[in-house]
Specification:
Elements (H helix, E strand, L loop, with lengths): L9 H6 L1 H5 L1 H5 L4 H17 L7 H15 L9 H8 L4 H18 L5
Amino acid sequence: MELKYIIKSIHELIQSESFRKRTAMYIGEPTISNLESFILGYYFGESIHKFDLTLMGTHFTTFNDWVMKYYTWRESTAGWKNIILKEVGNNETEALQMFFILYDKFTAENLEAV
């Protein structure tokens, strides 16, 4: 079986149709907490295997600040996951759906960041 293309980053994976249609296949129960754990695990694996980490901290730090401003929070220490989760009434599944909406908006505004 030949792959059509290889995912080069976590950002490409998150934006892929496969990931969006079959999120549970990648992260288990489709919740925003599992997504955050998946992303952190991806970065941990990259750091262990010494892959290029140039986007590791900057992209999701930038996303965190963007989410904070989107929801007009004064501080961003809560983290993007907790901000989104709080804004949707602590519903993990709804927060995951909102993540994809926000991530698309963020990416459209910050194409050079991805």
